[in-house]
Amino acid sequence: MKKNKPAPMPPERLVTIAKYVADSGMTDPAVRGKIRDGHWIEGRHYFRRGRRIRLLPSACDEWYQTGKKR
């Protein structure tokens, strides 16, 4: 089976979920729910390396401001 290549890392600094929660005011379960439910898309809103998740704050904030469902 062919492995998918990981999405290229964006030039903007990625942050941990804890840092995003502290800066944005969202709760940890809310952030993890957006990822779990597919509202935030891997490679666009967040990046995963092994079990570690890093968020792209500008993309997550844009999703919130535009009210997109997916």
Describe the protein.
The protein has 70 residues and is α+β, with helices and mostly antiparallel strands. The protein has three helices and three strands, in the order E-H-H-E-E-H. A three-stranded antiparallel beta sheet has the order 1-3-2. Strand 2 (46-49) and strand 3 (52-55) form a beta hairpin. The radius of gyration is 12 Å and the shape is globular. The mean pLDDT is 87.
Map the helices and strands.
Blueprint: E1 15-16, H1 17-24, H2 28-36, E2 46-49, E3 52-55, H3 57-66
Antiparallel strand pairs: 1-3, 2-3
The H/E string reads: EHHEEH
| Estimated structural class | alpha+beta
Count of helical stretches: 3
Rounded Rg: 12 Å
DSSP helix fraction: 25-40%
- What general form does the structure show? globular
Question: How would you describe this structure in keywords?
Answer:
single chain; 70 residues; alpha+beta; three-stranded antiparallel β-sheet; 3 helices; 14% strand; globular
Short description:
The chain has 70 residues and is α+β, with helices and mostly antiparallel strands.
